[in-house]
Design brief:
Blueprint (H helix, E strand, L loop, with lengths): L3 H18 L3 E9 L4 E8 L7 H18 L6 E6 L10 H6 L4 E6 L8 E9 L3 E6 L5 E5 L3 E6 L4
Parallel strand pairs: 2-3
Antiparallel strand pairs: 1-2, 4-5, 4-8, 5-6, 6-7
Length: 157
């Protein structure tokens, strides 16, 4: 019997293969629910734009037959294919570079930080820092990459 970690790794490898053939990427894989009601959520991404409902459908149709064939779960499961969303998590330099010019929220590490939460536009990415312009004040910030605890895009209304 495979562990959840081994199942996730096996799913990730196959999902990544299917996604790349469709011009997509795997953003995350989540296994949720109880043993009776498993939910497998595969979050897909697209390097050159946003994920559409059609992308989710194409991936699901291409990936679901493999899941049925390999029978990883003891009971039935539900496959959910989704996108990272408009307020997607940013996971490092590559994402900061990709979303340069976009509004993002940064939660910083450390209790003594003057500004534990900064919301601003991503201006530039340096070797070990990110430059942002705070949305409300227009103040420029240089944030050390190792000081970022969490970051995500903000929806601009």
């Amino acid at each position: 019997m495979l562990t959840n970690k081994e199942i996730k790794q096996l799913i990730w490898e196959k999902a990544d293969n299917v996604a790349s053939k469709l011009g997509l990427e795997i953003f995350d894989i989540l296994i949720k629910g109880s043993n009776k009601n498993k939910i497998l959520e595969v979050v897909i991404d697209k390097a050159d734009g946003y994920v559409s409902i059609g992308d989710c459908e194409r991936f699901s149709k291409a990936f679901d037959p493999w899941l049925d064939e390999i029978d990883l779960f003891d009971k039935s499961y539900e496959l959910v294919v989704s996108s990272p969303g408009l307020d997607r998590k940013l996971r490092g330099k590559a994402d900061y570079e990709r979303f340069k010019g976009k509004l993002a929220k940064f939660i910083l590490k450390g209790k003594e930080t003057k500004h534990p939460v900064v919301i601003g536009y991503i201006d530039d990415i340096l070797e070990d820092q990110i430059k942002i312009t705070e949305k409300d004040s227009g103040k420029l910030f240089n944030i050390d990459l190792n000081e970022i605890d969490k970051a995500n895009l903000e929806i601009e209304l």
